[in-house]
Amino acid sequence: MWQVSVSLMPCYSLAGGIDATYAVEAGATSVTINSKDRLKHRAVYTGTGQMIFHWVQEGKTQAWRCDISMLDAEAVQATETVGVDGSQRLAVELKSVYPAGLILQGRMVGTLMAPAVHVDVPWGEDIWAFLIRSPWFPLKLSIDKPTLSVTHDTGKASAFLSILGEGSVSAQVVLDGASFKSASLVVRRTLGLFSSNEAVCEINAGPQAFAWKPIARVFDLLLVVKGTVSEGHIADVARGLGAQISSGVLGGGNVEGDFVLCDGPATSYSWILRGHRGLLENEEDRSDAKFTW
After folding, report:
1. What percent of the chain clears pLDDT 70, i.e. is strictly above it?
2. Distance between CA atoms of 224 and 141, rounded to whole angstroms?
3. In this structure, are 11 and 56 located in the same domain?
4. pTM higher than 0.70, yes or no?
5. Dihedral (Cα; 251, 255, 261, 263), 10-degree rounding
6. How far apart are CA 266 and CA 239, in angstroms?
7. Are 258 and 133 contacting, i.e. CB atoms less than 8 angstroms apart?
8. How far apart are CA 258 and CA 190, in angstroms?
9. Distance between CA atoms of residues 284 and 276, nearest Å
10. How many domains does one find in the chain?
11. Which of 89, 150, 160, 182 is found 20 to 30 A from 1 (Cα to Cα)?
């Protein structure tokens, strides 16, 4: 599905007549946008690009929409080259590069965050280039509170979290007394406005040990978009990154489970211990966590 660019880095362009490449040299990452026509742009920005996939009300019906924005936009000077055939090339250095984050769920809702270049075109459609890379360094996990505990009457549930190599976690969950019917341990990932819960375990009695490993995938993609982005196009990109998505009538579909692209610094985490007393009757303790390098 991917179109391979001149620099042998994968580029997938949804912008007709425009593609891009990126290169890493002496620790600096630069993105070059190539257009067969003059862009007539007003400004170029870099920062954290965000795509929000959601449904909006349009009259009596709902429509899927992709909203694109830059969270921390910084105007930059691009190196511009114009060819004799009227083509144009813009080279931009990214000041901050980090692994991308993506959560996609249900009816193709979720968010993507990645280093990006935004070309502001006042009399046309803006151009965006998202650098979607997996972690290229060992991740380090830190957990604010490695011991979680909840109590009710004479019952107590506890979870003891130990960080192992490569960001994995060993968890021992203990349930004492008769006040709780069960206890569960959940990892909640949050990216922008969207969250995804992963059940680590649920026990009914006694101490039990469990292991958790971060999601790791290898990917390296420069995604170029212009103007309106369709649900079908985003579904194709997500499938190329590993998501399982059923085919929809208009090219979208439903995501099987929650698709988390990978774990890394773009995502925030909460470890949540719940003691279950009955339907919707829970006691809860939690700890924040994060990945760094």
Report:
1. 95
2. 32
3. yes
4. yes
5. 160
6. 21
7. no
8. 12
9. 9
10. 2
11. 89
40 and 88 belong to one structural domain: yes
Is residue 162 packed enough to be buried (19+ CB in 10 Å), middle (13-18) or exposed (0-12)?
exposed
Looking at the structure, tell me whether residues 229 and 271 fall in a common domain: no
Each residue's pLDDT expressed in tens, for the chain with a length of 293 residues: 333 333 345 789 999 899 999 998 888 899 999 999 998 899 999 999 999 999 999 888 999 999 999 999 999 999 999 988 889 999 999 988 999 999 999 999 999 999 999 999 988 899 999 999 999 889 899 999 999 999 999 899 999 999 998 899 999 999 998 889 999 999 999 999 999 999 999 999 879 999 999 999 999 999 999 988 999 999 999 999 999 999 866 666 899 999 999 999 999 999 999 999 987 788 999 999 999 98
3-class DSSP state for residue 224?
Answer: strand
Q: Which amino acid is at 264?
A: G
Question: Cβ(224)–Cβ(14) under 8 Å?
Answer: yes
- CA–CA separation, 27 and 128 (whole Å): 23
Shared-domain flag, residues 172 and 278: yes
Same domain for 164 and 279, yes or no, is yes
The two three-digit tokens of residue 10, written as one number: 């994968």
- What is the distance between the alpha carbons of residues 73 and 47, in angstroms, rounded to a whole number? 5
Q: H helices of the chain, where? A: 231-241
Residues 66 and 93 reside in one and the same domain:
yes
Give the residue carrying structure tokens 């190599």: 165
| CA atoms of 249 and 175, how far apart (whole Å) | 48
Which structural domain range is residue 16 located in? 3-136+217-256
Verify that 151 and 239 share a domain, yes or no. no
The single residue listed with the structure tokens 């949540």 is 272
Q: Which CATH number characterizes residue 194's domain?
A: 2.60.40
Verify that 52 and 71 share a domain, yes or no: yes
| DSSP assignments along 104-160, one per residue | EETTTEEEEEEEEEEEE-TTS--EEEEEEE---S--EEEES-SEEEEEETTEEEEEE
